Structures are given as structure tokens and as C-alpha cells.
Amino acid sequence: MTTLSERVSQSAFDGSRLRVVLLLDLQDGAQQRFLEAYERLCNQVASVPGHISDQLCQSIENPSQWLITSEWESAPPFLAWVNSEEHVEMVQPLHRCVRDTRSLRFSVLRETPEIPTFAPEAAKRRLQTSPRIGDGVVRHALTFTVKPGSEQKVAEILSGYTSPAARVDDTTRLRRTSLFMHGNRVVRAIEVQGDLVAALRHVARQPEVREVEEAINPYLEQDRDLNDENSARVFFTRAALPAVHHVGAIGPDPGDLRRHALYYPARPGCGMAVARLLARQDEMAAHDPSSPVAGSTIFQRDDIVVRLIDLRVPIEQEPVLALGVSGPRKAPVLGRLIDTGADGELGSEREISRFLARSDMALITDRRAPDS
User: Fold this and answer.
1) What is the tens place of the pLDDT at every residue in 306-349?
2) What SS3 class is residue 6?
């Protein structure tokens, strides 16, 4: 039997400590400004709930290469902070000093007995229990809103572009891009084999993609200037919708799966709780080989929660399982965490079906690279 750890390849909810690694390449002559910005950042992040410690390191071979590592009690408090508007403003001075950055995040799986004395007792015990077995695919999403009334025009622009080349380099390639809309909200989910950052940069450089991005600029609710590096970076930082949980079958997916994106309008402050609930449900469903849900990825940022699912059956055929509320009292619990609309409850299968129909995002385009 396939174990749960073999099916869950990504999760922010395993309770283990988190190690964050930030690689930086400084601009020439920016060391002093960088150090001053780092000191201010340290003082601010020290009071963030869940933060344990951080270190600043400089390369012994190339003095313009720096490394910041930080440790957190678990992934959720870090994600809540790094995706906040406060963080976007806080790191602006730091980014003005660097040519390039890359952020990596790891669950702590094993460690030597020497644990820092300042670490909370609970944090000392929080190690990832077993390795997760992945498929080499990185999943990420972007979300933004467009001006009301422009939805149809934006959908036409986003569905009509030419797909960029799938191959990025010898180790990285684009596998799939799925684009959905819910009202005036756009969600673009991407799957990358290899290096996500390299793939995103590759896509951004493609003329056909740049043309589409420029074409939708007038319709965006948040202004941006793609010719201004800082404006573009802030926009895409705010648009980031990280994958916090992924579970799927082992091996290649059958070609006849139906892909849907479900939008869960979380009540203020409940986004993480909604994502946790859905993650637990999808983990349990993964044990059932007859489940209609072949795979699920949960994306969450603040109170924006989107669940991407691949189904073996039409979505209306199994509304409870498709929505992720199988089991006693699960639907009412979800109903208390989200805005269910006019019905106000998720107490019956009829109410679940109605909410499912409202939350099912409109598919604009779903493109797969050859042999993916």
C-alpha cells in the first residue's frame, strides 16, 4: 500500500520547524547600505510570532555574495509574514542593494543534538517525521484582480497568446500552465520541472508573454510598470499565491482527468485555517484508490484560498468529495470559515452543490508541454 508520505509531496502543515535560506548578490558599493537595511530588518522580524533566529553570512570566495538564513517554529507563521503587506514594505531597502536574490525553504528533518538554548521547547521537538517523495515538479500560482467590467476582454487576451518554449535549460522545463477566472480575479497556476525561478525568468523574457502582460496592463486594478524593475517586482510579490499543500497519485496522470480550480472565499483571518482543513481532507482522500480526486494542490495567501484539483469524474457527480468536505461535520466547519454566499450554510448536499457551482472558477486556458 502506498503510504501517505509517498502521496503528499508538499506541505506547509506538517508542524516541523522551517529553515529559510536567502541567497543574495549585492550591487557594487552597496555593502554598507545593505548592512544597515539588514539591521533594521532584523529588529523588525525579531518580534514576528514564530521567528526563532537568523544569521547573516558572507562568502569567503566572492565578497558580493551573501546568505541570510532564518529559522521558524513552523511554516505557517513564516508564510503569513512573508506574504504580508508589511513584509513587502519592510524588504524594499534590502532589495535596492542587490542584483539578484533567491529564496529557498526547507522543513527540518534531522539535526545533531546541539539545539540552540533560546529555541522554545515545542520548537525543539518539531522535526519533519519522514521524507516526502516528490515528482520533481514545483507548483506555484499568481493571482491579481482586473477592473470590473473588463473580465471578458482580459479573458480573450489571456487565452490568445502563443505558448513560450517549454525548455528553459538542461535541467528545467515548463510542464503546464492553467489559467482561471472567478469574477474579476485571475489565477495562473504553473508547473515546472526543475528550477522555478529560472522558469519564471525565462517566461518573462519571451516576447509573446511580454506582449500579453503589456496588453492587460490597462485593465489591472493594481498599477504596474514592467519597464520599472521595482514596480514589476512589487507587483509579482503581491501577486504570488504559494502552494502550501500538494497530494497526488504516484506515477504519470491519466490523460482524461478534468482540471478545476475552486475558490474558497475565507472570512477575515481564516485563510490558513481553510487551507489546513482542505489539506487534511485531501490527505485522507489520498488513501482511497477509488477517490474521484486524483490530485490536489492548495494555494493560499492571506485569505485567498484556491484548490486546484484533477478529477476522474465530472465535478457535479461527486460534489462533497470535489469540494473537500467528506466526513462528519466537515461541511459545516468549512461553512463557518468561508463566506458561503446567500445560502449561509453548507449543511446539506444541495447547499454544497450550490456553493461548488459558485466556487468553480472559469477555465480560460490549460496548456501542457509535449510529453508532460
Assistant:
1) 999 999 999 999 999 999 998 888 999 999 999 987 656 787 88
2) helix
Write down the pLDDT at residue 1.
Answer: 41
Contacts of 271 (CB under 8 A, 6+ apart): 300, 301, 302, 303, 304, 305
Residue 117 has what pLDDT?
56
CA distances, 177 to each of 142, 203, 220, 287 (Å): 11, 11, 20, 27
pLDDT digits (tens, 9 = 90+) for 179-221: 999 999 999 999 999 988 888 888 888 888 889 999 999 999 9
What pLDDT is recorded for position 343? 56
Residues 6+ apart with CB under 8 A from 20: 69, 70, 71, 72, 78, 103, 104, 105, 106
Beta strands (DSSP E) in 59-136 are: 65-72, 98-107
What does the alpha-carbon distance between residue 276 and residue 284 come to, in Å, rounded to a whole number? 13
370 burial class (0-12, 13-18, 19+ CB within 10 angstroms)?
exposed
The residues pairing with 180 across neighbouring beta strands, listed in sequence order, are: 187, 363
Q: Which three three-digit cell numbers place residue 274? A: 481553510
Mean pLDDT for 115-141 is: 72
Q: How far apart are CA 222 and CA 364, in angstroms?
A: 21
- The C-alpha R_g of the chain, in whole angstroms, comes to 21
CA distance 300 to 13: 12
Give the single-character DSSP code of 57: E
Residue in the structure block whose three cell numbers are 457551482 = 357
Q: Which residues pair with 258 in a beta bridge?
A: 311
Given CA atoms 150, 151, 152, 157 in this order, what sign does their dihedral have?
positive
| Model confidence at 34: pLDDT above 60 | yes
The pTM assigned to this predicted structure is: 0.90
In this structure, the number of other CB atoms found within 10 A of the CB of residue 186 comes to 24
Helix (H) or strand (E) holding 168: none
CA gap 174, 165 in Å, rounded: 8
Counting beta carbons within 10 angstroms of the beta carbon of residue 77, is it exposed (0 to 12), middle (13 to 18) or buried (19 or more)?
middle
Phi then psi dihedrals of residue 147, to 5 deg: -65, 135
- How crowded is residue 349: how many other Cβ atoms within 10 Å of its Cβ? 12
Number of neighbours of residue 110 by Cβ within 10 angstroms: 7
